[in-house]
Design a protein that fits this description.
Blueprint lengths: L3 E8 L7 E7 L2 E7 L5 E5 L13 E3 L2 E3 L6 E3 L5 E3 L8 E2 L1 E4 L2 E7 L5
Antiparallel strand pairs: 1-11, 2-3, 3-4, 4-9, 5-6, 6-7, 7-8, 10-11
């Protein structure tokens, strides 16, 4: 069984409202979001369609649009919402403490 840990991803102020940034940890990459309602979320960093990084995508409300083929995902749930994206993104628990954003991941595991 792999241990889950809270990993510091960034300062909360590093992400603008309705924006996304890239976060790399070990050999994995994530996308960290701040939605229009000032909530923070984390998903795998790459689109499930062609592995383009979502950090250069467009955040619209609770939706992230992939910059390559415009596939869309629901940020809180990871659900694919528009083709060509058909497979959901993996999501991760997020907490904000003392102005820092943490995501909970299984250390040493691959996504």
């Amino acid at each position: 069984m792999t241990a889950k840990s809270w990993i510091e991803a960034c300062a909360a102020e590093e992400i603008d409202v309705e924006d996304v940034i890239r976060f790399d940890f070990e050999d994995r990459t994530f996308a960290i979001y701040r939605t229009e309602d000032n909530m923070y979320y984390a998903t795998d960093g790459f689109c499930t369609h062609e592995r383009v990084h979502l950090a250069t995508g467009l955040v619209m409300g609770n939706i992230i649009e992939c910059p390559k083929h415009n596939g869309r995902f629901n940020i809180p749930t990871g659900a694919a919402k528009r083709r060509p994206a058909c497979e959901a993104l993996q999501t991760y628990p997020v907490k904000v403490e003392e102005g820092k954003v943490f995501i909970q991941i299984e250390e040493g595991s691959q996504t």
